[in-house]
Specification:
6 strands, single chain, 2 helices, about 180 residues, about 35% strand, elongated, alpha+beta, 6-stranded antiparallel sheet
């Protein structure tokens, strides 16, 4: 009888030990999960703060002015977590442009790469949009997208509208002046 009682006590002890181990394991998992949640929310807040600092510094350096050939528009969301910069060009160029405006150089590069560069002086009506926002990637403070909204070349009584996606020509069509 003593032996049977010891066996039952041992089984009970073993059962309690297993249940306690499971309880401790589940509790520790929950703590690790809470720590990860705090870390993620902390990182998002830091990223938002870093983006806002970048935005403030960037706005100081962006020239808000416009000219006859360049119109610039800046849009900032109410929460200051995104910046939209739209540059619209309306100018006469030649393939031998030697200026340092990177958007014009990019436009000419698109024409060259696609073998559609006019041989003589031409008119370019061109709008490019930059959209900056807090990056979902942990290692990056910000991310951005670029989109060509309008790209029209006027050359020898022709107006040709080109469509580009990620720098690749996808269509062209003659449009009325």
């Amino acid at each position: 009888m003593k032996s049977s009682l010891l066996k039952h006590l041992f089984k009970l002890f073993l059962l309690l030990f297993i249940l306690n181990s499971i309880f401790i394991f589940l509790t520790s998992c929950k703590q690790v999960e809470k720590t990860k949640e705090k870390k993620i929310s902390h990182n998002l807040n830091n990223k938002e703060i870093e983006f806002k600092i970048w935005l403030k510094d960037t706005l100081k350096t962006i020239k808000k002015g416009s000219s006859d050939s360049l119109k610039r528009e800046i849009k900032i969301e109410k929460d200051s977590l995104s910046l939209e910069l739209i540059k619209s060009y309306n100018l006469t160029l030649s393939k031998n442009y030697n200026g340092n405006d990177k958007e014009i150089v990019y436009a000419l590069d698109l024409l060259n790469r696609n073998n559609i560069m006019p041989q003589n002086q031409f008119h370019l009506d061109y709008t490019i949009q930059y959209y900056f926002y807090v990056s979902p990637v942990e290692q990056l403070k910000k991310d951005f997208d670029t989109e060509i909204q309008k790209f029209i070349v006027r050359y020898k009584n022709e107006n040709i509208e080109y469509k580009f996606i990620k720098g690749n020509l996808i269509s062209s069509k003659n449009i009325k002046p």
